Structures are given as structure tokens and as C-alpha cells.
Amino acid sequence: MSSADGKAGVHVFASCMLQLHNPGIFRTVLENLETGVYMIGRDWKVLFWNQGAEKITGYQRHEVLGRSCRENILANCNEHDCIDCGSACAFASTMHDGKICETQGFLRHKSGHRVPVHLRVTPIRDQQRQIIGAATSFDEQTSTPEPAQHRSTLAAHGCLDVATGAMTHAFTISHLRENLVFFGEHSLPFGILHIQVKELGHIRSTYGAEAADAVLHVVGQTMKHTIGSAGFLGRWAEDEFLVIMPNCGTAELEKAGDDIRKIVNSSGVQWWGDSLSAAVHVTRAMVETGDTMESMLDRVGCSLVPPASSKSLSVELGNKIKEISKS
Question: Could you tell me if 115 and 175 lie in one domain?
């Protein structure tokens, strides 16, 4: 390298170092991170909300800035319980003791469903080392995303319930049958969870079909995030879902059911000023020797042929049920 090149390099480096003293540089970097970042002051109001936070939560910055986090905009949950902003929340802990706090939890998306995240809360101090606020960075914790092409293929073949993101009733029957075959041939244990959405009929009659569909979407998306790639999620009936958990024992099945109930029950939909609950009832059953689809479903309180919401759905399911019943 020549002497001229060396001097040019030093000049560029010096210019970069001077630029780094400009606070605007750091703000620009924070604004454009894929990681969600937001900050609150001592009065608990949100002071900063970046693009990553917008993408993960669905809330645009103008919807959040200046609002108190104690309004439970995101309604944080941890692995033990769903908590309001109070003495138990990570922000309160960090503001109190000045220690960095890391936790796994769920944030409520703007649409109502829960998003699993890893959060890290860091205290913000002034020149006198007094705590004047806190900053949180968070990343969505999801399993490998399902390729859009794969979902399109499933939808094209009538296997995907687009409204909820779950598999259709007919496809769920095939999957349950397959797990029973594996159990019979290889003794691979599995369990099922029957999830029924509470008060869906009341929501539909009071607020309309669109409101009921919004609640079902929230329930489906929240369950997808909660079970991840470990389980299979199917739409069973108008207000029912079936989760199949392969290669699991009783303890794992109970935990999966408890997680679904806890996280979904803390979700909901804001509908023209009213808060619509997405509460669910969960029952479970482990496979047993000699089980059939009918016997397993009977133990969780649902039937192989659920009440259809329309005549066309009854016809669609009829041929599939007959085919499986003959086997």
C-alpha cells in the first residue's frame, strides 16, 4: 500500500469516528433494526418504538408513543402466568434494582394473538447514574417458518383452513389416523387436545360473523405460535380445534394443554370499543392400546363427525368419514 493510500485510509477512519459521535447515527441504527426495541421513562410512557417493534407486534409507532406501558398495550406473559404491568413485570424489576433482566414470554399482537418473544430489559441511567428509564429489546421466537409455497399448495388442495391457519377437518382426520397406525406398529405414543372456543355463538349473534371470525383467527394463530413445530393443529368444527402431539408422554401433553389454555385465554379482539374474549376449554387424552379414532375422540368429548355449519361442509366431510370408517 502506498503512502497516499495509507493517508486516505486514516482520513476515512477519522471521519467515521467523528460521525459516531453524532447521536443521530445511533438513532438511525436503532430505528432500522429487525430486533424490536422500545424505551420507557420513569412515568412508564413509551419514548421510542422502532421498526422491528412495529413488525413483530403490529403496532405502528404513532399508536404507541406517549402511551403508558401500564395500559397493557402488549399485555406481557411469562412462562408461569399472564401478568399485567406491575411489580412482577420485567420493566418494574429493572427500574427497581437496576439489573438487566432477560426472560422468555409472550406479547399481544395488535390483532389479538400472542407472539412468543425473548426479552432483554436494560436500565437507562443519567450522568449521575440515576435510573431514568428502561430499554427493551425483543426477538420473535418461532419455529422454522412454513414456506409460503407450501401453505399455498395445502390451500390449493383444500387442506388448509385459511381463516385460522389450521389444517382442515378432513386433513386432521388423516393425520390422526396416521398417528394411530404408527402407534399400532411401532408403539410411538401421542396425545390429542380438544380445544373449544367459549361463547363463540354469543359473539356471532351479538357482534356479527366478522367478529366471530376475528376471534377464531386469534385463537388459531395463538395456538400455532404456542405449540410451534412440536404439534399438529387442525380445525375440527365451527368452534373447535384438535391438536395432535406426537412422541409425547402424559406430562408433556398436560403442559401443552395448560400452555394453550393460559396463553389463548389472555388473548382477545378489540371490536368497536368492546373487548371480545378468546377463552377456550381444553380436554386431553393419551393414546391407549386398542384405541380407535372414535374412542380417543370420545375421551376428549368430541365426535368423529362434528356438527357441520353448512350442508356443503357435511357433503365434503361425508366421503372422507366413510372411507376411514371402512379401514
Answer: no
